[in-house]
Amino acid sequence: MKPLNLIVSFLLVVILAFAPVSRGFTEEVSPNKRVKVELGLGTWISVGDTRWSHDASTSFPLGNPTSRLIYTDHSVNVVEFTAKLSVGPRFFGRLNVGGAGIGGGRLVDDDFLSPDRGSPSLRTHSDIDGASLWYVNADVGTRLTNLPNGRGTVDGFVGFQYWRQKHEAYGVRQIHCSAAGTAVDLDPISPGVDPLCAPGGAPVSNAVLAISNTSPWYSLRTGVQGEYHVTRWLSGHGSAVLKPINLFTNEDTHHLRVVTGELQDPELHHDGSGIWSRCRYRGEAVCDKVPRGTGGLSGLVEPHDRRNMGKSRGERTIQFVSTD
Q1: Omega into 65 within 30° of 0, i.e. cis?
Q2: Predicted confidence band of residue 268 (pLDDT cuts 50, 70, 90)
Q3: Which of 77, 99, 247, 295 is the most buried (most CB within 10 A)?
């Protein structure tokens, strides 16, 4: 069964589990067995970037990395729906569904040849448009402790996340073409010279789709969340999440690439795994390497390329302010 079908089936089970609790109770229920449903709607705002790099340097004269894509300067206003089912004072289940369009941004596309020793041989810029993300979190948890004097609570939870992010970049503007990019022949078998680029290359219209990238992620997550009552009318909430198991697929399509020469395949398909951590809070709090007053999501993955073109490396970093 495909992963998406598994997710849909899981959501149907969760919805069916929530359905009976909407009926009114006809008899007094013990507080320790009381079932409560909470619904919420919130938002969080983010800016960040997504980076992918690829190493095919075993094929001369390609460098390491061979190609690097940086989707930068995103701005996202995510709308998130939350449904929480509490059973007594200790146990709960929670479902979060969120999504947004990704506005603006720029794709920086760098290609490397070994004679340039790590400096880009070719750099182009494209405009990001038509990008989006959506995700589903499904968690179950329990009360870990109550703070003294009724000041607050600390809960632990485990769950699953599906995250899907898509980028589309339009147009191409050449920013830099090195001497090696102009002179090195990428296809020495064929007659003539097949260089990586030419100085003063003509731009491609912003109406033309140049590169598209789709990345679905499947993650197991565990974490803690807490609430602290400062006064009767003021309280703070926070959570920290670790994702010890992550599986993903990265599909990268270069729509303008010619189908000849060393870089003839316009589609790259990667999969891999990694570890992620997340801090999210409202109020005064600090998470590692994240400025005060914001939340953060960061991680690193080491994927492999199904087409055996070498090693790949991907990184996604988002900083956000939660307003839910």
Answers
A1: yes
A2: low
A3: 295
Which residue type sits at 244? P
The residues, any chain, with a CB within 8 Å of residue 1's CB and separated by 6 or more, are 9
* Architecture label for domain 3-322: Beta Barrel (2.40)
- The Cα–Cα gap between 124 and 128 comes to 13
Task: With a cut of 80, say whether residue 266 has pLDDT above it.
Answer: no
Q: Which residues contact 111 (CB under 8 A, 6 or more apart)?
A: 66, 67, 120, 121, 122, 123, 181, 196, 197
The mean pLDDT of 215-230, rounded to a whole number, is 94
* CA 48/CA 69 separation, integer angstroms: 14
pTM of the model: 0.70
User: Distance (Å, rounded) from C-alpha 83 to C-alpha 95?
Assistant: 5
Residue-by-residue DSSP string for 169-218 = EEEEEEEEE-HHHHH--S-TTSSS---S--TTPPPEEEEEEEEEEEEEEE
Which CB contacts under 8 angstroms, 24+ apart, belong to 15-19?
A: 17/85, 17/93, 18/83, 18/85
Question: Which phi-psi region, left, alpha or beta, contains residue 42 (left: φ > 0; alpha: ψ -120 to 50)?
Answer: beta
DSSP 150: G
56-70, 145-159, 272-286, 290-304: least confidently modelled range: 290-304
* Domain locations along the chain: 3-322
pLDDT band at 312, cuts 50/70/90?
A: very low
Q: Which helix (H) or strand (E) holds 222?
A: strand 204-229
Task: Give the tokens for residue 268.
Answer: 């790259």
pLDDT, the chain, mean: 76
